[in-house]
Specification:
With 319 residues, the protein is of the alpha/beta class. The protein has helices spanning 6-12, 17-31, 107-124, 139-148, 164-175, 187-191, 234-239, 248-253, 277-283, 303-317; strands at 2-5, 35-36, 41-45, 50-59, 64-73, 87-92, 98-103, 131-135, 156-160, 180-183, 196-199, 218-221, 242-245, 274-276, 295-298. Its EC number is 4.3.1.12.
Length: 319
């Protein structure tokens, strides 16, 4: 059994086109129905303001499958510790024997999440998109921009965050990478000229309204990943010409579609068609019918991404 620490994993895996292709391959397999992906196992540890999620998937034909354990303890920064942590256990898909444990401390999750955002833009955003509005100023807000630059020629970023000082620090980091960055005091101003909007916050109430959407924009919403989080107002989803999610079941439970799930029911009744990202990728569905089309993609994070990035990481670590 192989043991790999975060330092080695970071040296082997980065936000690049090869990693993007690995995640794209996983989503395409999901779209073809070639993935076994059970529901997320989630456990709250309320007294410590913590939660633990377990995700997994088997991709038919892949040599290995991964089981990821992802703790989030949100008071940790007060103790000088990171909020997010975790590891991936990787098993042989032929024998069930443990091949490796990746002590990535959440690094691979951050990478695969950013790459899913890039894929949503590749298939849904206008090809000439250059300006991105980012709501949020944390790690994923930064990684989403880095990943987007793999698929679009991004040159300008508009940022809004609840804490102005966090937005200013974020802006400075991106300026050092050659980007033009503007900090805004309200969401509407940040989104006014956007080609792409990325929401990357832990918000528990909608922060983006239909009135904030310029013509032709693509929205990637990736902050709502548990039952108590929301970033998009209902009006954003009903206004969209195409609504896509990584999986409908997860979006209805943890993502933005839960806004349409009635009490006592398990499936959302929505006044629009719902597409899944894997289907869009595999079938190359042309959902952007004009330059004025508005598209939305809701990403909750899937086990197929974890198995795809774990297989890719082990290939890089052992060659």
């Amino acid at each position: 059994m192989q043991l790999h620490q975060r330092e080695a994993i970071e040296a082997a895996v980065s936000l690049d086109t090869a990693a993007l292709a690995a995640i794209e391959l996983g989503f395409a397999a999901l779209g073809r129905g070639e993935v076994v992906q059970p529901p997320i196992l989630s456990m709250a540890i309320e007294e410590a303001n913590g939660e633990v999620d377990v995700k997994t998937a088997h991709i038919r034909g892949f040599e290995r499958f991964a089981i990821k354990v992802s703790p989030g303890f949100f008071d940790n920064p007060k103790q000088g510790l990171p909020s997010l942590n975790g590891l991936m256990m990787v098993f042989s898909a032929r024998t069930g024997v443990v091949d490796a444990v990746l002590f990535d401390e959440g690094y691979l999750t951050a990478v695969r999440t950013a790459l899913a955002g890039a894929l949503s833009a590749r298939y849904l955003a206008r090809e000439n998109s250059r300006r991105v509005a980012v709501l949020g100023a944390g790690e994923q807000a930064e990684l989403q921009i880095e990943a987007l630059r793999l698929v679009r020629d991004i040159d300008t970023v508009d940022v809004w965050a609840r804490r102005r000082e966090a937005a200013e620090a974020y802006a400075e980091r991106l300026r050092q990478r050659g980007l033009t960055v503007n900090v805004h005091d309200d969401v509407h101003a940040a989104c006014r000229a956007a080609d792409i909007i990325v929401t990357a916050t832990p918000s528990t109430a909608p922060i983006l309204e239909a009135a904030d959407l310029p013509e032709g924009v693509h929205v990637t919403a990736m902050g709502s990943d548990s039952p108590d989080k929301r970033e998009l107002a209902d009006s954003v989803m009903t206004r969209a010409d195409a609504f896509v999610c990584d999986t409908r079941a997860q979006s209805e439970c943890n993502g933005e579609l839960k806004a349409f799930v009635k009490a006592g029911e398990t499936r959302a009744e929505v006044p629009f068609k719902v597409y899944e990202l894997g289907e869009v990728i595999d079938k190359r569905l042309p959902l952007r019918l004009s330059e004025a089309s508005i598209t939305v993609c809701d990403l909750t994070g899937t086990g197929v991404q974890d198995t795809a990035i774990a297989n890719y990481a082990l290939q890089r670590l052992t060659t």
